[in-house]
Amino acid sequence: MHKISAFYSRKPARSKMILKVYPVSLGCPKTRVDTERLLGSLAPAVMVSEPDKADLIFVNTCSFIQPAVRESVQTILELAGDMEDMPAHRRPLLAVAGCLPARYGAGELAAELPEVDLWLDFNNFEQWAEKIKLSLLEQKGERFSHLSTAPGRIAPHPPSYAYLKISEGCRHSCAFCTIPSIRGPLRSYEQEALVQEAEWLLQKGVRELILVAQDLTAYGLDKNDRQAFARLLENIAPLPGLARLRLMYLYPSGITRELLQFIKDIDAPVLPYFDVPVQHSHPEILGAMGRPFAGNAAKTIDLIREVFPDAALRTSLIVGYPGETDAHFAHLFDFVEEMRFHNLGVFAYQAEEGTPAASFPNQVDEAVKEERRSEIMQRQAQISEEFLAVHLGENLPVLLDSPQGEWPGLWIGRTWFQAPEVDGITYVSGENLRAGELVTAEIVETGAYDLQALV
């Protein structure tokens, strides 16, 4: 397994000089975990809500596709602009980490964005905290010489759920994807450290753990350990305080009857929620994508429903892939119609520099991509609405994440078939509620993606 330091919780050292950090985490939950681990590795430190109050501005970037690259660069420039009028002694250290420097290189980016004081990439993740400390000492003198940089993690916000990243990188080589070149090959984290981290998160009040990786089913395969993922589930599921264990990013090629039966035998708290990114349905497009399976995508979905008849299914699709004809798209639309996913994300193909697919012939017009994306999403909204309507009048367990903010007594929560940030939500009205509470609520109204409930 990829060696990471054993996870543990630390009490900040007593000091008059506490590091004030303004963090920005862009992109996927895996980036968010990296940010939480980095912030927990700096002590004594506190987070602040405004960049001009910070000693350190930490931006963890995404660069999976060009819109994410643009968002990352724009965020950096906006923060740098906010610091222009600050006196030198008040200016925070601007550190930028993650996918952007991993994709383009710190040298090239330093020339383009001289406003950034420190660039950090994945090759030295365990050294991020120490590199930040050294840069702070260089910029601000000895004020932070006492700063500790031992491994840790901050408690997530909201406290109801937390992501647990079990591996880094990817072992696949899909023709459209930049991830292997950005995050490198598959490196599975040591199981003991992951279980310790899960225990710590649960002790902090987390009720739902969400396992994430580029492909959960590949966990351990870098060491030829085909039972590693099953053992990890077996070790985490019985931990005290765990109400829900959700699995995100399960490649279809790794889903077997044996794995599904193992998950079923574990039962609670593992949710019968399966996030399976199929990307397309037509064998010709799947083959051109270089997906690790290129046959009948419906077989995996049928297998899941055979073992879990009431499973909630989520997937992601790409439309407008090079060479996608009207017939290929019709096949995909019929696939969505037939499979009836509970939740679905559709993305218009982006030709990313450095990927094989970017140089493929028969690139699809942007307007056609958007038309196809819209067509599937309109149908999916109808399917989702039909699914949710079935629950009208039912009493369902809802995990409360946070107050809605505008209306007193109104909370944002999720049923078991709603993953945070990507699926719909359940609005819950009631008195004396609190974040992290699992309540039974009556569904009084349903929509295309969201539910409303009363306690």
Question: How would you describe this structure to a colleague?
Answer:
The protein has 455 residues and is of the alpha/beta class. The chain has three domains: 19-144, Rossmann fold, CATH 3.40.50.12160; 161-389, pyruvate-formate lyase- activating enzyme, CATH 3.80.30; 395-454, OB fold (Dihydrolipoamide Acetyltransferase, E2P). 33% of the residues lie in helices and 21% in strands. The protein has 13 helices and 18 strands. The chain has helices at residues 29-40, 66-83, 99-104, 106-112, 128-140, 179-183, 191-203, 228-236, 257-266, 283-289, 298-307, 326-339, 366-389, and strands at 19-25, 45-47, 56-61, 93-98, 118-120, 161-165, 167-168, 187-188, 208-212, 244-247, 270-275, 312-319, 343-348, 395-403, 410-414, 426-429, 438-446, 451-454. It has a six-stranded parallel beta sheet with strand order 6-9-10-11-12-13. Helix 8 (228-236) links the parallel strand 9 (208-212) and strand 10. The longest helix has 24 residues, at 366-389. It starts with 18 loop residues before the first strand and ends with a strand. Mean pLDDT is 93; it is low at 1-10.
